[in-house]
Each structure stands twice: as structure tokens, then as C-alpha cells.
């Protein structure tokens, strides 16, 4: 109300409207029949003690909204929209069922393929299943990693030179993985800082992080397998292939690998850590840096756990490298260490 004056004995009518929570005349939904709303009306803010009038209001029942009348055309339209929505919803669920079924079949097929490799089944059986799966899923990373594992363990055919044949097989398997991973997008993802606390969609961000992690792991495994396959077969001080083209191929593959995998902390497991140490050792030898090669090999042997599957072979390589460098006394001590850690077991007569 606007301020004003009254003569002594005069009066002024004041009308107080019913309280409304939404401004449309309706009571708030949380007010029910039986509730009492209380308040006050102050006529003079400076003299509240003598100009305040108490207000009391019994809440009435909520008004019953009349049913909205719709003509036949509107009813039919609403029913049509509802039916269309239900059909779309049902189609989406059916599509999800198909995707889940395809995923389950692929996982079961991949498990069977892995069991064939581990049980050393015939190559024909493995290739028959793998070729069919690869034709239907050319970019499925778990499948491509399985084929990479097979290329590293499958026996070479008779008449084939082991090192050259193995390098070809592993190179082809690694190439499939490299072509399935967008390396530029992966580098951009890991080279950019992200604030997960402010992420608009945490679930989507978590899913992307999982997918990117799987892609990076597969990329590292492929690059390491290819570099190991292209490496010289033996530890030598020269550390090079007989062919300059093969030597260049090895150096190029290691240079690409080091962009994603340079330290043992980035390797997936102990086997990859051992393979990385050997590849980098041979690379340093090829680059005429025997001291760095020796340091790499000794560091990895010192970090290995007891009973490592590759420990004996790497100790033997270290002895060879010692002798290559003219450190015969160190080589003899290392060979004695190898005998103590990996004694030759013979059956009793």
C-alpha cells in the first residue's frame, strides 16, 4: 500500500487476498484441508508494536479440476503419437537385444579361438575360425590382439627361415592393430588436460577413458611386438642385421615404438617389460651404444621377480654381451649366477 494520512476517527478498508504459492490463486500442493496459515499485517514499519494486525486463514480443500474435453480428432492424434512412441521404444529395445546377442556370440567365439591357441590345436582349425571372425569384425581390438599373440607363438612352416617368417607374421598382425587405432586422436586425448570434476556427463567421460585406455594398450603391444620381431636374433656388439634394409626397418620400428612405449612402467605385464628391455638393448647396440645397452639389460634383470619366465634367457644374453665387450671375468660370474638361479634338473637314475 502507498503511504497516506487519516483524520482522527477516520477509517480505511484494507482487503487481504487469500494466500497463493504460485500466483495463480491456487494454494500450494503441500497445503491440505485442516491446515491453518498465520501471518500479520503491519501498517507502520516504524511502530510495529501498535500497528500490527494478526491474520489467520483456514486452508480450503483443493479445487477439483474439470476433465478436459477433447474431440475425436484430438483423441485419435494422441493415441497415434502414443502408439508411435511405444513402437519406437520397442524397436530400440529389440536393437539393443540384437547388439547384446552379437556381443555375446563374439566373446564366446574369441574365447574359443584363444583356447585353440593355448591348447596348440592345428593351424588349420585356428585359421578357419580366425578368418571368419576377422571378416566380420575387422577392427575389434580384442580379436586383433589375439591374432597378434598367435603370430608370436605359431610354429613356422618347414622350409621357412624362422626370423624372416616370424617378422612377416608379426608385422602383419601389428599392422591390423595400427590401422584400427586413430593414433592422432589418441595422442590428442592424452595430450590434453581434462577436469573430470566439471564434466557434463561423467558416465560418457568414464566410457571414453576406458575405450582410449584399451586403444593405447593395444597400440603399445602392437608396436612392441613389431619391434621385437624386426630385431636381430642374437645379441652382438654390432647389433645389426646382415641386410641394411632389415636394419633400417628395425630402427624405424623402435623409433615409432618409443613415441608410445619407452619405459617399463608403460608395459602391460612382465613379459612385455622383458620384451621391451631386449628390444631397446638391441637398439642401443645397433646405434653403437654398448654401455647403454648393458645398463638397460642389467636394470631389467635387477627388477625381475623371482622365477621370471624370461630370466634365464636374459641372463644368458647378458653373459654373451659381457664377452662381446671383453668383460670375460664378469661373464664367468654371471654364468655362475645363472647356474645358481636356474639349476639344471636331472631325473634320478
Task: Provide a concise account of the structure shown.
The chain has about 350 residues and is mostly helical. The chain is built from twelve helices and two strands, in the order βαβααααααααααα. Among the domains are: about 10-60, no CATH class; about 85-135; about 230-245 and about 255-345.
Detailed description of the structure:
There is one protein chain. This protein is elongated. A two-stranded antiparallel ribbon has the order 1-2. Among the domains are: 12-61, no CATH class; 83-137; 232-245 and 257-344. The chain has twelve helices and two strands; from the N terminus they run βαβααααααααααα. The chain starts with 35 loop residues before the first strand and ends in an 8-residue tail after the last helix. It has helices at 48-51, 72-118, 123-136, 141-153, 162-180, 183-190, 202-230, 244-258, 270-286, 290-303, 311-324, 328-341, and strands at residues 36-42, 52-58. The chain is mainly alpha-helical. The longest helix is centred in the N-terminal third of the chain and has 47 residues, at 72-118.
